[in-house]
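ok new one. same drill as before - structure tokens go in, u give me an amino acid for every spot. 301 of them this time. try not to just spam alanines like last time pls lmao
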């Protein structure tokens, strides 16, 4: 059975419906081209600039240009100013193949809306990969830290470094750091900080916590790091720590942390003081099976 146009929703429509990524409060950019439209053929740039006029800061264009104006191969595009929004359009198929630090300095989130046909000669998927690497380089949205959204610990919203730092008024940074360092986890350094969020959790109150600095991305497992920090906070501050209550992402019954972790079981194990090293072995085994299952479909080693 073929879904009707009313049933089928394109990615940008889901994004607008769910209000995901907190774009109302997070400065962001868009990587798109002429095919980045909704079912009514309205461009993603226009949809998001109308919804989030204050936080959309820049645009990025892949091969063939933001509007598909460069039809042939090996034709580079120049950066320019978008006529309808006045925003800079940064070419990623010209002098730069990946966003420079200067291009990313004013944003916290990069939204990618590109259609790809799944053939290796197309460059869009590589442009997206280079963008992800650039975002990691410049500290844009360290994903593991999103777990704090399911708690009363501030994930740094209301500051200039959301998801790079976390804290709460009840945390005593020195003892938390000692507890975490005993785990001997490589790849990251915790720098003790205090901050006052201007909005969101603990607005106007002094939060004590840490700014996470990645010192070896190849060794770092940020999800595991964040889970360990979460467990340490739960254990050290049982009178201060709380899980965030629903709703979350339009879900009104399930605990937000269960949605974020993708597992009610993991939350219960955390509450019971489970050995996270053993928990990690479980998902590593699942990842290993997935890597084996996908081998027949890989084009390259």
């Amino acid at each position: 059975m073929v879904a009707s146009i009313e049933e089928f929703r394109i990615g940008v429509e889901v994004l607008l419906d769910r209000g995901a990524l907190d774009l109302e409060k997070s400065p962001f950019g868009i990587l798109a081209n002429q095919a980045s439209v909704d079912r009514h053929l309205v461009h993603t740039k226009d949809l998001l600039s109308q919804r989030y006029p204050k936080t959309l800061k820049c645009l990025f264009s892949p091969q063939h240009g933001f509007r598909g104006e460069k039809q042939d191969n090996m034709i580079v595009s120049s950066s320019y100013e978008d006529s309808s929004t006045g925003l800079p359009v940064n070419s990623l198929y010209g002098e730069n193949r990946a966003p420079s630090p200067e291009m990313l300095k004013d944003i916290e989130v990069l939204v990618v809306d590109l259609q790809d046909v799944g053939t290796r000669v197309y460059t869009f998927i590589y442009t997206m990969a280079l963008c992800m690497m650039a975002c990691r380089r410049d500290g844009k949205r360290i994903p593991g830290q999103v777990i704090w959204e399911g708690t009363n610990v501030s994930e740094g919203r209301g500051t200039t470094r959301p998801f790079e730092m976390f804290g709460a008024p009840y945390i005593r940074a020195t003892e938390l750091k000692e507890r975490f360092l005993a785990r001997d986890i490589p790849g990251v350094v915790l720098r003790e900080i205090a901050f006052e969020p201007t909005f969101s959790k603990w607005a106007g109150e002094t939060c004590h916590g840490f700014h996470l600095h990645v010192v070896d991305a190849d060794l770092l497992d940020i999800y595991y790091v964040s889970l360990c920090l979460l467990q340490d906070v739960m254990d050290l501050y049982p009178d201060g720590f709380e899980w965030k209550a629903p709703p979350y992402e339009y879900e009104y019954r399930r605990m937000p942390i269960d949605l974020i972790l993708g597992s009610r079981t993991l939350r219960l194990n955390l509450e019971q003081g489970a050995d996270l090293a053993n928990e990690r072995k479980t998902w590593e085994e699942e990842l290993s099976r997935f890597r084996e299952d996908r081998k027949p479909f890989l084009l390259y080693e």
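The two ends are 37 Å apart (CA to CA). and btw The chain has a mean pLDDT of 87.
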